[in-house]
# Entry
Amino acid sequence: MIEAVAAMPELWKKNALLDLIDSGVTSLFQPIVKTDSGGVMGYEVLSRGVAPLESACDLFGAAKDFGYSVDLECTCIRSALERIAREDRGQTEKYFLNVSAEALFDPRLRQLLSPEMLRKQGLSPDLLVLEISEKTPVPQDNEFAEIIAELKSAGIGLAIDDLGSGYSSLRSIIATSPEYLKIDISVIRGIDRSPERLRVLRGLVHFADLVGAKVIAEGVETGEEYYALVEQGVSFVQGFLFCRPEPRCAGAEGLYTQIASSRKTVSIPPGLTGGLASRNGDEKVGSIIRDCYTVEENTMNCEDLGEVFRNNPEIDHVPILNRGTPRGLVTRSHFYSKTAGAFGYSLYKNKPIELLSKQLFPIVNDNETIQCLYRKAMERDSEHVYDPVVVTNREGKFSGTVTIRQLVMRAGEIETEHALNNNPLSGLPGNRRIERWILKAQKAAKDFTVVYADLNNFKEYNDRYGFIRGDEMITFTASILKQTLCLEDTEIRLGHIGGDDFVFIVSGPLPEKILCDVCRLFDSGMNRFFHEDDLLRGFYDAKDRRGNHSRTPLVTISLAALESRSFDNWKHPAELAEIAAGLKKKVKQKAEKSGGSAYLFERRDYRG
# Structure
């Protein structure tokens, strides 16, 4: 009797599972967000059951225990497709469906994903992306390769899910040649505070570039995590920070705007260049545009344009303008592909060139950064990836064009400069860039403020807690500065001299509130870096610079601000650093007395 009672919950769970497999599951949508615009790239479709198997963990755990994993996956895919078919779908959004490599061998699943079955539901195969989890082994046999080829030929996309959490990533990628790599939450969680996770992420982003895949970061829950991902060039993110799984395909734009305005996370903050946008660089597209041959709308036929191309081999594209506004683009390759053949030229020669124009050609403002445009250009369809980019000014009038060769070469140069000149720990520009910023600010003959920041008692902290925790504190400090230094209509450049020393240059006067916020956020966040007993005492035992053991106060930050109005129009950056060094001693004394972070403005007059 006792054994029968004990078995009842398991029997109940099995029956509940079989009912769900038969009747279907609930499908929820979680948006995948573009970091460059905050728009929605697509949705992951997630499956939920009913009590006692409501959560995905319970649902798929029970299916594994009772041997119904593939049956459940077929049900989830069927329910997801039925739910997608009822959605008011956009033109470009993708729908990501989870599937195991094992389930792909099941003919029932492949039947559900066949073009014929999808068309019956009003769905196109190119709407779908199958996420193959890295947590289960991917076969290397011919049958699996044939299944993958069949899916791809139908137009269905592939992604490797849970990257960095399970079986060999290389093996999975070789077997599937995916379009997307989804980085597991175990890599993303706390990435803003972990140099090790940041190094792993950089490697994965670089690897994705090499294999031609796009990176999606899963499980983003904090603004700091999001910011760290943007800085490393991650194009797409997903997580509770933007939206929880919902029954409808709700956009994430509203929440994104709220996050972006909170001073805690922005893709590329307005008015903020240099350090915070260092991954993208601050060089604008306008610096590499070139003049080119243009044609006014409705003034030329294809025969005349053919003559232009024949007589001017250096011309490989022609923008079509209407009173200075771009209306179309004709490329040499597209022109000849349409006019080739026995009847092509005769068919088009007397027709207006607008007939061969690419109406959906890329247009960007001359204020777009080169690295941001490079990423966007490379994400275009293969048919258009080598088309030139039309550049306009703020009024939307034609400024010139940028060829992909120009874009690739300059983007590569910027990446090289980034690698050579930026601090590898924080990713921020180093001494050479900082010196150029200060010299440029002085040359502009306008008011500016230079702020030198460093950590008090940091060497002792490194000795007591180790260099790994020390690196984490440096990364934390950089994130605090990035979060706080967001001022509209004010140009701010943030750099990392090295070690625990940072510099930022602000155009015009700097509100004291910004320095107060830096101190407040640092003091409220640094507790995570100390043992609880050290926090309670307010100090810890460490060796001082002479090697003697002493009571060392907790780490604080000191900020020394120098306003250009206090010194001559021209001072070498080294002289400013010397002045700041003297001021920092006073700030440190102030911090020691108060027991917290502190700042000072240099009020003395150094002119004359």
